[in-house]
């Protein structure tokens, strides 16, 4: 099972990178629902953040079944987010922070207008992306340990996994809020 976790942890960022940077886009012409996907992703991330905190509270109160259900919900939301994220980015042009005229380029005026917020956005985005890649194998290991009743290993790994996953879900919402004014 550990080999599957390693394989999935490598495959996810590779597939995402290939679909994001491929010289072609998926042709979902006429699929107006695609424009809603960034909002869906923000909702999924917001919900995940809340559920993670509720799951922590549940386990602190020894409500193991509730904790398990909340965490499984987080895992499902994560999977839905991933499918939605890949679908959107594989079918839509990238949105550039500060690109007010939506031409895919930043003029000097647009750069000036974006100011330091562009730097803030890039720092938050890069930390979000980097940690989202790092957290996947740890989330999968935490689930593996919990589902196989290896609770001491589960507890050890979630000390680090939980705050990273929470950070990734919260910064996902922040990234959306920062970039959403620039969607065409």
From TrEMBL:
Entry's transmembrane regions: 5-24, 36-58, 70-88, 120-145, 157-179
Record-given protein name: Putative membrane protein
Cleaved signal peptide residues: none
Keyword Magnesium in annotation: no
Keyword Transmembrane helix: yes
Domain of life: Bacteria
Organism of this sequence: Marinoscillum furvescens DSM 4134
Pfam families in the cross-refs: DUF420
PROSITE patterns named in the record: EF_HAND_1
Keywords of the record: Membrane, Transmembrane, Transmembrane helix
InterPro entries xrefs: DUF420 (IPR007352), EF_Hand_1_Ca_BS (IPR018247)
